[in-house]
Amino acid sequence: MDYEKQNGKSSEAAKEDVLILAIESSCDETAAAVVRNGREVLSNVISSQIDLHTLYGGVVPELASRKHIEKINQVIGQALKDASVGLSDITAIGVTYGPGLVGALLVGVAEAKAIAFARGLPLIGVHHIEGHICANFIEHRELEPPFLCLVVSGGHTHLVKMEDYGKFEILGRTRDDAAGEAFDKVARAIGLGYPGGPKIDRVSKEGNPRAIAFPQAHIDGCPYDFSFSGLKSAVLNYLNHAQMMGQEVNQADVAASFQSAAVEALVSRAMLAVEEFGAKQIVLAGGVACNLALRREMEEACRARGCRLYYPSPIFCTDNAAMIGVAAYYEYRNGVRAGWDLNAVPNLKLGER
User: Are the CB atoms for 165 and 145 separated by under 8 Å?
Assistant: First the structure.
């Protein structure tokens, strides 16, 4: 696709800004965005595959990779068009290179390397979770590190201290299932289907969160770590027992009770960190940051402790390229550059380079 011909040239004034063309393809969204100076989103295009993967009850990696190949040029072209810029205006290319599905990541990395090489532009590899954290900078211009961050997504649950741009200290993480993964599995078990998080959040409004006492895991010597496998198993055991006894299951009560236990586990650990470190600001990040119960409980807990809570709008909580562009900008500003050997790293740890 001839992006220059399609989009034309922008003014000389635009060239004074740092414009990042960002690409995200870590799972089942093909996304591209143009971000100016780390805080201003000029465009944010997302091609979702939810309808496709809903047919299978979850993400099918091979299908996700194929769909990325089909859509990636389209979303990049649209992102440039929406931002009214051409590739000659772009300062650098940012791309998610991990963690995620290896085949899906490779599509985005290959595309970013090709554009950067052809145009002679700097290439910046971005950690997907760092992108989620940086999504908070888009709508909260006053937010600056240091701050605490609770990352809650389908593949990750972390409690993190962001000390500076690009500098992270992990305080706690899940020992097994991520919170979002547990939401999806419980939703499937009670017949809600995929994606589970939004459906449990919606159905829970009709249920009693205290109807069923589901347990929470506590890990000796690691007060900030999480574990959701036991909670998920408790829900499955409850459902199996009810089936064997011929008892009717109230779907809304199960959803609300599960969500209440999961949210309490997340909020309690976050507030423990707030108290220990005397934090005055904490942010939510990741797809589960859309959960209304989590936001409500975090707001109440933060208000009681004099700590300010930040979270992105839903469009910036789920996978998107704007957040990658923000993270790439601060990497660019810190002098971080990737070589042409940049590769997908599906199990990339937070803070690794």
Answer: yes
Q: Could you tell me which residues are beta bridge partners of residue 310?
A: 283
Which of 116, 103, 155 lies closest to 132 in space, CA to CA?
A: 155
- Surface-to-core class of residue 100, CB atoms within 10 Å of its CB (0-12 exposed, 13-18 middle, 19+ buried): buried
Question: Please, are residues 310 and 140 in contact by the beta-carbon 8 Å criterion?
Answer: yes
CA distances to 24, 36, 164, 166, 167 from 334, in Å: 21, 16, 11, 8, 11
> For residue range 214-224, what is the model confidence (pLDDT) as tens digits?
998 888 899 99
Residue among 157, 110, 101 at smallest CA distance from 132: 157
Residue 42 and residue 10: Cα distance in Å, rounded? 13
Q: Tokens 């993270």 — which residue?
A: 327
Report field, pTM of the whole predicted structure over 0.70:
yes
- What 8-state DSSP symbol labels residue 318? S
Q: Cα separation of 338 and 353, whole Å?
A: 10
The per-residue DSSP string of 206-258 comes to: TS-TTSS-------TT-TT-B--HHHHHHHHHHHHHHHHTTPPP-HHHHHHHH
Local structure of residue 348 (DSSP, 8 states): P
The two beta strands, 92-98 and 40-48, are: unpaired
Per-residue pLDDT reduced to its tens digit, 165-189 = 989 999 999 999 999 999 999 999 9
Predicted confidence (pLDDT) per residue in 160-169, tens digit: 999 999 899 9
pLDDT band of residue 194 (cuts 50, 70, 90) is confident
Q: What confidence tens digit (pLDDT) does each residue in 265-317 have?
A: 999 999 999 999 999 999 999 999 999 999 999 999 999 999 999 999 999 99
Following CA atoms 11, 15, 18, 22 in sequence, which dihedral angle do they give, to the nearest 10 degrees? 60
Q: Please, what are the domains in the chain?
A: 3-134+317-333 (3.30.420.40), 144-311 (3.30.420.40)
Q: What is the mean pLDDT of residues 74-101?
A: 97
